[in-house]
Amino acid sequence: MSTISTLISLNTPLSHVIYQSSSDLPDTWDHVANTTLFLQKKYFEILEHSCPSNMKCFFIGIFQNKELVGVAISQFLDLKSLESFGERDKCLKTIVRNFLFKRFASHVLFIGNCMLTGENAYVFSEAVPFEKQIKVLYEARDEIEKILKKQGITIHLLTSKDFSIKEITKINQTSICDVFQFTTQPNMIFSISESWKNEEDYVAELTKKYRDQYKRARKKAIGIVKRKLSISEIEDNQELIYDLYYHVAKNAPFNSFFLSQNHFIELKKIWKDNFLFYGYFMDEKLIGFTTLIKNGSAMDTYFLGYDNSIQREKMLYLNMLYDMIAYSIKKKFKTIIFARTALEIKSSVGAKPETMFGLMEHKNPIINYFLPYFFHFLEPKTSWQERNPFQ
Fold first, then answer.
1. How far apart are CA 122 and CA 51, in angstroms?
2. What domains lie within the chain, and their CATH numbers?
3. CA distance 295 to 276
4. What are the phi and psi torsion angles at 53 (to 5°)?
5. What is the pTM of this model?
6. Element housing 264 (H / E)
7. Full pLDDT tens readout for the chain, 391 residues
8. N or C: which end of the chain has fewer CB within 10 A?
């Protein structure tokens, strides 16, 4: 994960403090977490006010002596309280998977953030050896498990996410190298060329096939108006926005949570201009939306929603991707984090897959022994063909 520089003694043992409120975090928290918005106080405040109903968040401060040298996030998910894990796949395998999750793996404790894709779990001072980082994080996780047990919650599954190839290589040199490692859908990353000054420069570098795709999508979108929404407009359209989001979310192959209705309002209220909400209108009716988060030199795409019947007719999702690319080029971002799902269409606009790894343990030793088999049997498979629109 990301690191920061500070002068500390390597011989002093690390300690941790578990926080459940952003108001209790040390004053130096954001200085340590300055490499990503997703570990800073304001984001944790957003989660406190609007995290999914089946989620509890814990914030971990890592100290050497009394100096804060690392920060992390942990989340507990109660999957049993979900009405649906996702309604896209109706096969027998999916029915069996959902039953087993609810019966044997409904209480999940993460190191990391299951609402995001990418390395957003922790930040440490670069002076802290990696082995010590992992050790203190596992100690903190053990304490969170005890906190939950006092509340009558028994953890079934322990997992950590997301790790890049570089990070998992370091993990393989530590004492937890024998923990089951898994991969799911890759993180789709779009790199913005320094030579691109506007959308036209991007389109000019596409091959004819993909320029034609771009022209066809833009032609289909005639009649759709896109505009940035203010917080009052998000509030006025809250129910419709949630319906559009929920339609997309429930048709995913697998869900571990659903957003709260006020989540986008809280994001806009607290993050202001760092959170962008774009509505798509046809005949003055909201038919879709996208959200973007400015995170340093990276533009993170967030949740979206749309009317599926109009999406197909107007190629709305593809146009949304082109709009995100155009805005990010104009504002001189270096990368766009398109995250998981819809891999092939994201690939067709130029995003590249980055493999992300996770760690998983089951508290039942017998289930844990067979976990690699169970995981590969139950994990939804996604078949897709990588595209290269620039060659």
1. 19
2. 2-184+356-378 (3.40.630.30), 188-354 (3.40.630.30)
3. 12
4. -65, -20
5. 0.90
6. helix 263-271
7. 544 333 444 567 899 999 999 999 999 999 999 999 999 999 999 999 999 999 999 999 999 989 999 999 999 999 887 765 445 455 555 556 565 666 667 899 999 999 999 999 999 998 899 999 999 999 999 999 999 999 999 999 999 999 999 999 999 999 888 999 999 889 999 999 999 999 999 999 999 999 999 999 999 999 999 999 999 999 999 999 999 999 999 887 777 889 999 999 999 999 999 999 999 999 999 999 999 999 999 999 999 999 998 999 999 999 999 999 999 999 999 999 999 889 999 999 999 999 999 999 999 999 999 988 888 766 666 788 999 999 8
8. C
Helix (H, G, I), strand (E, B) or coil at 172: coil
- DSSP letter at 50 equals H
Residue 267 vs residues 19, 215, 317, 335: alpha-carbon distances, Å:
21, 34, 22, 21
Q: How are beta strands 107-111 and 157-163 bridged, if at all?
A: parallel
Residue (of 162, 118, 161, 160) closest to 302 by Cα position: 118
The contacts of residue 26 (CB under 8 Å, 6+ apart) are 61, 68
Q: How far apart are CA 303 and CA 287, in angstroms?
A: 15
d(CA 70, CA 116): 20
| Residue type at position 185 | Q
Block residue for tokens 């990368």: 335
CB atoms within 10 A of CB 250: 15
Q: Which ranges of 6-129 would DSSP assign to H, the alpha helix?
A: 29-32, 41-50, 92-104
Q: Give DSSP secondary structure letters for 94-149.
A: HHHHHHHHHHHS-EEEEES-TTS-SS-SEEEETTS-HHHHHHHHHHHHHHHHHHHH
CA atoms within 13 A on the CB side of 91: 8
Distance of CA 125 to the CA centre of its chain: 23
Q: Collapse the DSSP code of 352 into the 3-class scheme (helix H, G, I; strand E, B; otherwise coil) and give the result.
A: strand
Please count the other Cβ atoms lying within 10 Å of the Cβ belonging to residue 255.
17
